[in-house]
Design a protein that fits this description.
CATH superfamily of the largest domain: Cytochrome c-like domain
Strand order of the largest sheet: 1-2
Helix content: 40-55%
Bound molecules: heme C
Number of strands: 2
Order of helices and strands: HHEEHHHHH
CATH class of the largest domain: Mainly Alpha
CATH architecture of the largest domain: Orthogonal Bundle
Length: about 180
């Protein structure tokens, strides 16, 4: 087919219209992806995000963002010794739910974990280990504790309790009893 200038222009416009149409379809898809992807990086259901708030059985539901924030503070403040929920220098006292539940007092809830970060005690609850374990009480001992506030402690507790629900036994797992 021979293009006269006018039919040529017409075909240019029509293909332009076609690509514009394509773009119009693409744009919402791209926007959709941009909105969805960051959320998908950390998306857990409410059941996963719900953990015991205190020993009485009251529950608290965290948000994805809170758990993400808790993970960051935890990795910075506690990661050297507790990365992945283990305790490097004492494999018997990890941060897995079973071990937390059997501590005295039981540490498998937000309130008791926050209490531990403020005033840690031996596993049997007999004596304070604030002079050994990082805590708010003796922030001089472990400077990473200095910058933390109550909200940071609450978010870390949330992260410690949600992690095994997301990671299974990989959290605090591979434990060696000795
Ligand atoms: C310098 C290493 C070190 C750092 C840093 C550290 N911990 Fe610990 N953590 C330990 C040790 C060792 C134990 C076991 C203490 C014992 O003998 O009872 C422990 C025990 C615990 C327990 C009790 C676990 C249980 O099953 O009863 C909790 C809870 C805990 N740590 C939370 C934290 C949190 C939260 C942070 C960060 C704010 C943190 N720890 C930072 C070394 C550390």
């Amino acid at each position: 087919m021979r293009h006269t200038p006018s039919t040529f222009m017409a075909s240019v416009f029509s293909s332009l219209r076609q690509s514009l149409k394509g773009l119009l379809v693409l744009i919402p898809v791209l926007i959709g992806l941009a909105v969805i992807s960051p959320a998908q990086a950390a998306q857990w259901d409410a059941e996963t995000l719900t953990v015991p708030a205190d020993p009485s059985g009251t529950e608290v539901t965290f948000t994805d963002r809170e758990i993400d924030a808790g993970r960051k503070v935890f990795n910075t403040s506690c990661g050297t010794c507790h990365a992945g929920g283990i305790t490097k220098t004492n494999h018997n006292v990890g941060l897995d739910p079973e071990t937390l539940a059997l501590a005295t007092p039981a540490r498998d809830n937000v309130e008791a974990l926050v209490d531990y970060m403020k005033d840690p005690t031996s596993y049997d609850g007999e004596y304070s280990i604030a002079d050994l374990h990082p805590s708010m009480r003796d922030a001089e001992l472990y400077p990473a504790m200095r910058d933390l506030d109550d909200e940071d402690l609450r978010l870390m507790a949330g992260y410690i309790l949600v992690s095994p629900k997301v990671q299974g036994t990989a959290w605090g797992g591979g434990k060696i009893y000795f």
